[in-house]
Amino acid sequence: MSEVTVGSLAKVLGMPVEKLLEQLSGAGMTFSGPDQVVSSTEKMKLLGFLRRTHGKDDKPAEAAAPKKITLQRRKQEELTVSAGKTKATVTVEVRQKRTYVKRDEVEAPVSDERAEALRKLEESKARNDAELAALSESDRKRAMEREAEEARIRNEEAARAAAEAAAAAVADEPVAAPVAKAPSEPALPPGAIVIHEPRKARTEAKVHAKPAAPARPMPAGPSKAPAPGANKPAGKHKAVRGSHAMVDNEGDEGQASRFAAGQLHLTDSERARRGAAGNRKKPKMRMAEPSRTASGQHGFSRPTAPIVREVFIGDSISVADLAQKLAMKGGEVVRALFKMGVMATINQVIDHDTAVLVVEELGHKASKTAEDDAETALVAHVEETQGEKRPRPPVVTIMGHVDHGKTSLLDYIRRTKVASGESGGITQHIGAYHVETDKGVISFLDTPGHSAFTAMRARGAKLTDIVVLVVAADDGVMPQTIEAVQHARAAKVPLLVAVNKMDKPEANPDNVKQGLVKLEVVPEEWGGDVQFVPVSAKTGMGVDALLDAISVQAEVMELQAVYDARATGVVIEASLDKGRGPVATVLVQQGTLKKGDYLVCGTYYGRVRALFDENGKQVDAAEPSIPVQVLGLSGVPDAGDDFVVVADERLAKDVAQQRDAKKRESRLVAAAGTRMEDIMAQMGQDSGQVTLNLLVKADVQGSVEALRQSLVALSNDMIKVNVISSGVGGITESDATLAATSKAVIIGFNVRADASARKVIESNGLDLRYFSIIYDVIDQVKQVASGLLGKEIREEIIGIAEVRDVFRSSKFGAVAGSLVIEGTVKKSKPIRVLRDSVVIFEGELESLRRFKDNVEEVRSGTECGIAVKAYNDVKPGDQIECFERIEVQRTL
Predict the structure, then answer these.
(1) Are the C-beta atoms of residues 596 and 581 closer than 8 Å to each other?
(2) Rounded to an integer, what distance in angstroms lies between the CA atom of residue 802 and that of residue 880?
(3) What is the C-alpha to C-alpha distance for residues 657 and 674, in angstroms, rounded to an integer?
(4) With 0-12 CB in 10 A as exposed, 13-18 as middle and 19+ as buried, what is 475?
(5) pLDDT tens digits along 646-683
(6) Residue 276, class by beta-carbon neighbours within 10 Å (0-12 exposed, 13-18 middle, 19+ buried)?
(7) Whether the predicted model's global pTM rises above the 0.85 cut
């Protein structure tokens, strides 16, 4: 800080230096010239002298000194801000302000006002404590009074009860007149208002069985009924504090005196207090949680050891649900799966074994849970309906090779002509019939013989009691005959052999027997246990003997079933009818199926709307071993599904929905969770593979199954046949749209496309093909697949010449004198030069001569001269290989 002289101070004050020196000397300070320095204390002394000169109060220098000092500082800076391609400069000004106060001002003693406030606060606390003590004392007194009042009331009730008992003992006395009023109550004129005391009202309310309701106030009078709280028993009041307690402190005597004096009106404050005391209930105080109170510590504590959780896992579970059960983030579970080699996202479903491995890897415990509550209820529902068993008809399945006369034999037995109506003369559906013969009722299942219907034959063998193997006497044992024997052995059912077509002159039953003996099917006449019955479906020869053999075998087996119970059975075939909806052909195995029953069939449920037999006639019920068609299901079930009749629709719906959810989860598990090893193994395999997409629709579920398996089996390393969708029923617009999206070929087996579907097919140019014979489907799909495969270029060696010597020519360079040792060497075909069986050059011939003549080809054993174009490094001992490229159509 710069020093202040007398001259500079005079200049600041705007006065001459001489005058300032006079004032300084008057103040008792000696200054000789304008260059002397003036201190701050001298300035304050001069200021006090001037104040006293002008008649103002003067304070000492210490008192005149400032009590606080405020310092202000201003600072400016420039910032460069880039805004895209341009830059802008912004000026920033920072203002600072600080205030300094003397220490004695800060540590000033407490003022009188603060002391007064503290004193009043202490007095208020003392008053509150005194009021609380008074309230507690009044509550205690009031409780004692209530106890005394209750004791008095109990004594009065006991006395009243004793009086009533004594009065009842006197039976011959007439009923007494109404009780007269007490002498203390004077008689009142008519229309007067009677005011009762509250205590008496309470006492009488307990004595009488039915207390009278409080009377409504008369419209003419200003009086009001007592408060509702006044009529309540005293024992039910709770001890309250505050304004409620102060109202009750008036005492019973004060209330009685006020009511007796005719004081019917209350002040506003009293009415408010009494209304609150009688009507409002004090809410229960809930204890505050320790974690929410500010005084205590928080409710969370760090775990001292890892928490091991027990996780219940079903057949499958999604990664998100597993993470939630483990109380972990989904990313941690996904990371654990990646470490195990399973690539799955948080929304994918993993199977039970993978989930157990992940849980154990993360340090928790996994347990198996069965989420089949509805299935358990269904099993219990079925087990509780058991009854008496009675004999039932046998179920016989006709099996054999294609075109061996199975359906014709069954037609002769049923006196029908089913085989003549089959497409191509072959059976492509599984048929179910029951026939009433002289030997009793027999149910027949007719299975297809084509190789594509393996699943149908296996299903027929599982449903049956007896298998009749039909073998043509003129054809012998064929592949499907062998398969039928295997199915019968797998199902562990007895086998009967019907040697058909015995009416033909070329029939050879011994050949059939020899072929079956190789399959360990030994006839009875050869020492075995299998009956061989020669029959003819055309003339009827041996049919009665076959029926006798079936009846004898059924009697030996002693087939029985429960009739008076809820029906159970198996779906033989299912289809979608345009007018009737889903139609399922079922075989009843136990119980009786009736119209109106609720049933579960696979993933579908419904109520039986109608039952039809194999001839299309409507029936009311179906007993065991009888096949019928069922209408009323919610969808088309799969062939082979079991059906169960239940009591109500709710159980049926729950079971069907649970089965559908399990089926969907299994499908998701099969599609998800690809392992890294599988991806590494598949890398590069599908690069040259062509995919043929197909959409298959058929008339029945069994045909869909057979077509799907047969078409997918056509896939190989070069082409993949992919059935994107398959179903039962006609081709709809949604099917056509799916085929257009996937660029698929539509195959309709015994079904047709509707008008909307045909419009979509025509607008998108889709390939739609109709079939009625399964042979044609497989053959045409092979042709389409072969067309997609394209042509293969192959190289075929047509001749080899060995170089014997090399000559030089001015026109061609090196000319190889050669001998054709194999095939033919042609001038127009490409060649290769081999040295020590290694190709060293590939090109074409420039000249081929026989002696001096140009020739087009040279045959084996002939010498020739060969000039290779653009290659002169031919040496003796080399071989010149002549080949040609040909195109070959790929086939499946």
Answers:
(1) no
(2) 6
(3) 28
(4) buried
(5) 888 888 888 888 888 777 777 666 555 445 455 455 55
(6) middle
(7) no
